[in-house]
């Protein structure tokens, strides 16, 4: 069965002049719309092809990889607007329609929007900016510490909303963000907590103590690289710590605390040094 709006593994079943036809046993043939396919095709070859409905209502395929498939939420730019709606550039020859009825606010050419791709009742692929009907605020099936795919949405008074695994809303809190985020950005994140109301608190840092040993090893490596002294310490700003190690100040302090307990380092306000190294400027 050929899945519309998805990448399918299809066989080249016929080549007639410049036309290449793809298919599967028991399914109709699909014309490859690419004028110049990205790879040579011979009858019997299997190719990854994205299948869609063309402007005339026929099945078509492309070897180009779209920016999103049916079921995905993506950050896409408006290429044009006409009396049907807004048309988005999604990386294949036929632009993606967002009907006016599926727009929260009027979409403008050249601007990008978060949209959900879906298949309409006629089998055509379309998109909508009305995400709330596809996304749940409650995620009791998630577990604290679980790795998830995040798509950054809108800032709020508390932090930044993010879409979790294309299915749920979650929140990244401002006091735990140590780098700027942009709407539409894709990141790997973690479930920090499933709240009592089943809403999801998120973090960009791997939760728990499992990451402290690797971080401690990185700190030791940096110390060795810089003569046993690191210009970061107990009172260094979170931004400086994130710039150096890509982690929160809390995780950094846990890691240096573990190294201190092993008597491998001495911790000062603005420096960390290997045991036995001369005292830095923070020492009395």
Automatic annotation (TrEMBL):
List, for all copies, the residue spans of the domain called Conserved virulence factor B-like winged helix: 217-272
> Which Gene3D superfamilies does the annotation name?
Nucleic acid-binding proteins, Winged helix-like DNA-binding domain superfamily/Winged helix DNA-binding domain
Domain of life of the native organism: Bacteria
Residues annotated as domain Conserved virulence factor B first S1: 4-64, 70-130
The family classification in the record reads:
Belongs to the CvfB family.
Name of the featured protein: GntR family transcriptional regulator
Which species does this protein come from? Answer: Methylomicrobium album BG8
């Amino acid at each position: 069965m050929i899945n519309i709006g998805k990448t399918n593994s299809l066989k080249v079943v016929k080549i007639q002049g410049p036309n290449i036809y793809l298919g599967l046993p028991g399914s109709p043939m699909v014309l490859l719309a690419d004028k110049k396919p990205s790879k040579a095709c011979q009858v019997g070859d299997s190719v990854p092809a994205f299948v869609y409905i063309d402007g005339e209502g026929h099945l078509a395929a492309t070897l180009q990889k779209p920016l999103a498939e049916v079921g995905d939420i993506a950050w896409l730019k408006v290429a044009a607007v006409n009396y049907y709606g807004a048309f988005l550039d999604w990386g294949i020859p036929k632009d993606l329609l967002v009907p006016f009825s599926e727009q929260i606010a009027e979409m403008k050419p050249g601007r990008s929007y978060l949209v959900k791709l879906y298949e309409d009742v006629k089998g055509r692929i379309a998109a909508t900016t009305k995400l709330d009907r596809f996304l749940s605020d409650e995620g009791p099936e998630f577990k604290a510490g679980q790795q998830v795919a995040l798509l950054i949405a809108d800032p709020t008074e508390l932090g930044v909303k993010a879409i979790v695994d294309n299915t749920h809303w979650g929140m990244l809190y401002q006091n735990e963000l140590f780098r700027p985020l942009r709407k539409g950005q894709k990141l790997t994140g973690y479930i920090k907590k499933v709240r009592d109301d089943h809403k999801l608190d998120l973090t960009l840092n791997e939760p728990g103590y499992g990451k402290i040993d690797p971080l401690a090893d990185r700190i030791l490596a940096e110390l060795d690289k810089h003569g046993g002294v690191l210009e970061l310490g107990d009172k260094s700003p979170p931004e400086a710590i994130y710039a150096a190690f890509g982690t929160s100040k809390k995780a950094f302090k846990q890691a240096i605390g573990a190294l201190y307990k092993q008597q491998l380092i001495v911790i000062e306000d603005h420096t960390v040094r290997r045991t036995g190294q001369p005292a830095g400027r923070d020492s009395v």
